[in-house]
Write a structure and sequence with these properties.
Length: 136
């Protein structure tokens, strides 16, 4: 496979993981906040559904956490020459605004994972923290 095709496929798969994770995590929050709170179910009937939504949201946040370093490595892979060392280029990429944004994305994705774990226990504050972590 030519390098340009390999680069395009790698970028597409990494972007797919990023956007799929974001969609699943935000979808879980939307389900909990907009649907389950207004569906007419009792609290005991909503709790298992909310727990399932939190589990799905957690896996979406895991995808976000995995995609962030892969996006940085993909950027480095496209910048290095075949015989060049990756480490200096990686340090350069992480020093840019893109690198800092990817680092913040990974930190907030980890916070969202923890928040969804708290939400699975039935605590509303987990949902609030997950919402903040994903919106930022």
């Amino acid at each position: 496979m030519p390098d340009s095709l390999t680069d395009a496929v790698a970028s597409a798969l990494i972007n797919l993981a990023h956007y799929a994770g974001l969609t699943v995590a935000l979808g879980a929050i939307t389900l909990r906040v907009l649907v389950l709170s207004r569906c007419g179910l009792t609290v005991s009937e909503r709790a298992p559904k909310a727990s399932e939504a939190a589990r799905a949201g957690m896996w979406g946040a895991v995808l976000l956490l995995v995609a962030a370093p892969l996006r940085a490595l993909n950027q480095v892979r496209t910048l290095v020459e075949p015989d060049e060392s990756w480490l200096p280029v990686l340090q350069g990429v992480l020093g840019t605004s893109l690198g800092r944004a990817l680092l913040l994305q990974a930190i907030w994705a980890a916070a969202a994972i923890v928040a969804f774990l708290v939400a699975r226990q039935g605590r509303d504050r987990g949902w609030k923290i997950a919402t903040i972590a994903l919106v930022i």
